[in-house]
Design a protein that fits this description.
The protein contains 16 helices and twelve strands. By secondary structure, it is an alpha/beta fold. It folds into two domains: 242 residues, no CATH class; 265 residues, Carbon-nitrogen hydrolase (Nitrilase/N-carbamoyl-D-aminoacid amidohydrolase, 4-Layer Sandwich), CATH 3.60.110. The strands form two sheets. The chain has a six-stranded mixed beta sheet. Strands 6-7-8-9-10-11 form a six-stranded mixed beta sheet, covered by helices on one side. Helix 10 links the parallel strand 1 and strand 2. Helix 3 crosses helix 5 and helix 4 crosses helix 5. The model has no long low-confidence stretch (mean pLDDT 92).
Length: 520
């Protein structure tokens, strides 16, 4: 172990951030970079002082997440109407928070390397990384944005193990590959390393073979399975104008126009999906809903639509709950099978500690301060049992898993990515949604206001998708699978196990450090 000079720390931190940007969605999207992307970060683990390791990891993580999350400024300034002196510090604070997990990894990794050496650390560190990723997905409501495993979203052959242990296992494998390369460069001639190389090679070979096997198996199921034709409409409605009362009629006309074109095609869609808050009004209060009822009755079609919703809790106290909802509008004119978004966006759909942070209220004033619903039963339309993921719910594997366990045979992601502008965020959001299809072995239908909309099969292949900021409408035959994946039954426990295992390692390190302080 040694003291690393500051110029070297800055250089390797920049290399780490650049390599991840080159490999991950929204950046260069050149996935072969990812198995080596963590090598610069591993170099920081050689620092002798644990506090310096932590600070070096914090710098590297900060640079990485600034690249990944710069679009936060667009959301806060353009649509949250916050001045720059709030939006830029908010980006910095979020990047620092996310970087804490990278810092913790570097600090723990260095201690493991000191205590047990490279051979043992090689196999322990992927558990630590995944455990910290899982912790980030649950703390403070969770923000698991762009875990490393999502870089495999366009490589179906390598992504299939997600149906065993989720996208976290893809991350595990990438960390293991980077660790092997680093330790080989550092001490490749040491005894035992040929065995480690062989073990990692066998694991990677097993990943490829499993992918080949599962793709062939699933292609047979897709060819012989039940299916339904579903249509998607991307309205491309200007976010800055969609809530204006004078624009509501035009918005409805846009969606009805594209829906009518879909209904004239053969085969005709059994269900047509509109995006999150496609109806910029409360359905139970607006006369425009009657136009939609008349349309569905005349066309004999069912719409799955996103809209705001409210329910009166107490009339005398004027206690009203507002929701971000999705519901079916049937040919009989029924507003059926509502789902209220269960995982709300902090500072977007509600303000935590609102009394203490009153200056952030403009972020939710446009749409209201929402309450959370819960996953109950799928939205049913004929043979379709739709599990709905509203907006960034698609980045949480557990919500998709709950829908599949509740009987959903297709996942439907309604979103409004107009908030992100022309940034990397729509591509990142789409990539994370694709892994939900692989994990649950369900087709995924995605309807976004401004893109990316599309259709993903249970193998994780994007069958078709839209560009951003264009009107788009398309029908597609979607396979309806019902069997639960291993991930749905047991594999989802892999990431929490990694977190528990990491906590045990930290406790063990602390106990041994007390007994042998000279080795710390």
């Amino acid at each position: 172990m040694r003291n690393l000079p500051a110029p070297l720390v800055i250089l390797v931190s920049c290399c780490f951030a650049i390599l991840l940007w080159l490999g991950l969605p929204g950046g260069g999207e050149f996935w072969p970079v990812l198995p080596i992307a963590l090598v610069p970060l591993f170099l920081l683990t050689l620092e002798r002082s644990p506090w310096k390791r932590f600070s070096f990891g914090l710098l590297a993580g900060f640079l990485h997440f600034i690249f990944q999350l710069y679009w936060i400024v667009i959301v806060l300034e353009r649509y949250g109407h916050l001045p720059w002196f709030f939006s830029y510090p908010a980006l910095i604070l979020l990047a620092v928070y996310m970087a804490l997990y990278v810092a913790a990894f570097v600090a723990i990794a260095g201690s493991l390397l000191q205590r047990w050496g490279g051979g043992t650390a090689l196999w322990l560190l992927p558990f630590v990384w995944v455990g910290l990723d899982w912790l980030r997905s649950i703390l403070f409501s969770g923000f698991p944005w762009m875990d490393l495993g999502y870089g495999m979203w366009q490589v179906p052959l390598l992504a299939q193990t997600a149906d065993l242990f989720g996208h976290h296992f893809l991350t595990f494998t990438l960390v293991l590959c980077s660790g092997l390369l680093f330790f080989l460069l550092r001490q490749g001639k040491s005894r035992g390393w040929p065995l480690h190389m062989a073990a990692v090679f066998l694991l990677c070979t097993a990943v490829v073979l499993y992918g080949h096997f599962r793709i062939g198996q699933l292609e047979q199921k897709i060819a012989g399975g039940d299916s339904a034709v579903i249509g998607v409409v991307q309205g491309n409605i200007d976010q800055s104008r969609k809530w204006a009362p004078e624009e509501q009629q035009r918005t409805i006309a846009t969606y009805l126009h594209h829906t009518e074109k879909l209904l004239r095609q053969t085969p005709r869609p059994q269900l047509v999906v509109w995006p999150e808050t496609a109806l910029p009004f409360f359905p139970m209060r607006s006369p425009l809903i009657e136009e939609l009822r008349l349309f569905t009755a005349e066309e004999g079609t069912t719409l799955l639509v996103g809209s705001p919703w409210f329910e009166v809790v107490d009339v005398e106290e004027r206690d009203i709950d507002f929701y971000n909802s999705a519901f079916l509008l049937t040919p009989a004119g029924e507003l059926k099978d509502r789902y209220f978004k269960s995982h709300l966006v902090p500072f977007g759909e509600y303000v935590p500690m609102r009394r203490l942070l009153p200056f952030l209220a403009p972020l939710v004033e446009a749409v209201g301060d929402f309450s959370a619903g819960q996953v109950t039963r799928p939205l049913s339309s004929g043979t379709i049992e739709a599990g709905v993921l509203i907006c960034f719910e698609s980045i949480f594997p557990d919500i998709a898993r709950q829908w599949a366990n509740a009987g959903a045979n297709v996942l439907v992601n309604l979103t409004n990515d107009a908030w992100y502008g022309r940034s990397s965020a729509p591509s990142q959001s789409m990539a994370m949604s694709v892994l939900r299809a692989v994990e649950t072995r369900r087709s995924l239908v995605r309807a976004a206001n401004t893109g990316i909309s599309g259709f993903v099969d249970p193998i994780g292949r994007v069958r078709s998708s839209s560009d951003i900021f264009i009107p788009w409408a398309q029908n597609s035959e979607v396979v309806l699978l019902e069997k639960l994946s291993f991930f749905n039954r047991y594999g989802y426990l892999f990431a929490p196990f990694c977190a528990i295992f990491t906590a045990a390692l930290v406790v063990l390190l602390l106990l041994r450090k007390r007994r042998s302080p000279q080795l710390g």
